[in-house]
Design goal:
alpha/beta, 5-stranded parallel sheet, 9 helices
């Protein structure tokens, strides 16, 4: 097995910690123009890796690079999708054999789409089959998660303001310690709250938290499958966090934001 990756936040640290075989394609590009160049550059790198490694099948999470390069070489590719960023879907759908989506997924991607019960996070955090926290701190704490807003689906959006971050810290500090996990740099006055643990221990930290608050849909969903309440602030929403809110009462989305996946607030079929 071989992993290909780009150098985003703690990706390389995790691959090294779990001693997984990987090849890095370097840092992702941030602007639209450079992303177009990146499509060519990363496709070339993927082709070279596939020619050398000669896999029987490839699997990617919304990866147009893996799908396109695999198609060129006649290698079957499976895509995993849960966000529905159509600018990515359009680039990989013609080249993949199947697209695996959770039952809560809000779009119909055609004949290649295969729905499954559950969500991505249960694959590695199911409390009865996959994950048990190694450490259980005794003092209560809240965990705040801030993202960098550089992904393609983040275009035109922005996160929690600096002032509101400080207000959140002050509010949660009344109930215990407050720690921050941040994808990008933190201002000097918030840096003392940064959670200083190896990235492979992050799920232990989530599992033991009293609450998760922040901008990451994935981390909110990870908290939910671990039984930890999460407050998710975002101006688009995700199909799986909506299901975790309406069906299980574990993720709470800011009601002031519209949901592009459910503008009329139609209840999920349960």
């Amino acid at each position: 097995m071989l992993f290909t990756c780009r150098e985003k936040e703690c990706t390389l640290d995790l691959l090294k910690a779990y001693r997984l075989n990987y090849i890095s394609f370097g840092k992702p590009f941030q602007t639209a123009a450079w992303k177009i160049w990146g499509l060519l550059r990363f496709n070339f790198k993927m082709l070279r890796v596939l020619l050398q490694f000669k896999p029987d099948i490839t699997l990617g999470h919304s990866s147009m690079y893996a799908a396109q390069a695999s198609w060129l070489l006649g290698i079957p590719h499976i895509s995993v999708e849960d966000t529905g960023n159509m600018e990515q879907v359009r680039l990989y759908r013609p080249f993949t054999k199947a697209i695996l989506v959770p039952d809560s997924f809000h779009l119909n991607l055609g004949t290649k789409q295969i729905r499954y019960p559950g969500n991505h996070e249960l694959a590695y955090l199911h409390p009865n089959r996959r994950f048990q926290p190694a450490v259980r701190p005794t003092a209560p704490y809240s965990l705040l998660r801030f993202v960098a807003w550089h992904a393609s689906h983040d275009h035109g959006h922005k996160g929690i303001s600096h002032e509101n971050k400080k207000k959140a810290i002050a509010a949660f500090a009344k109930f215990g310690n407050v720690y921050i996990s941040s994808e990008g740099p933190l201002p000097d006055d918030l840096e003392p709250c940064r959670l200083k643990i190896p990235p492979e221990q992050m799920h232990d930290a989530i599992a033991s938290a009293s609450l998760l608050y922040g901008e990451s849909a994935t981390m909110a969903s990870e908290a939910a499958v671990l039984g930890v309440p999460a407050i998710y602030l975002d101006n688009t929403g995700r199909c799986y966090t909506r299901e975790e809110e309406e069906k299980y009462g574990l993720v709470f989305k800011n009601p002031g934001y519209p949901n592009r996946f459910n503008p009329d607030n139609t209840p999920l079929n349960t």
